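Comment thread on ticket #2218

A.B. wrote:
> Attaching the input chain for the structure job we discussed in standup.
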Amino acid sequence: MQPNNIVIVMGEKKRRESANSNFIFGKRNYKFMLIGLGVIALGFILMSGGGSDDPNVFNPEIFNWRRIRLAPTLVLIGFGIQVYAILLDPSKNKNSKT
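C.D. wrote:
> Ran it. Output below, let me know if you need it in another format.
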């Protein structure tokens, strides 16, 4: 009967440890995620517009530098920030030099 009690106690300890509500990411991770989402949203906002009210009239405004180069670059940079935020180690202190 003794070994069963040890198993029950160890199982209870493991259950209590897993019941802790720890976040997967740290505060810095979430800050970088919000910054990345903001950059992605800004890229999509810059990409919008430039259409014509009359479908028979061509508007060359859709091919300007902002919509072709800047906006997609901002979206890609935003996705890069998101990847960095996910890979950032939340347990590492910013004051430690190791």
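A.B. wrote:
> Thanks. Noting for the ticket: The chain is about 60% helix and 0% strand.
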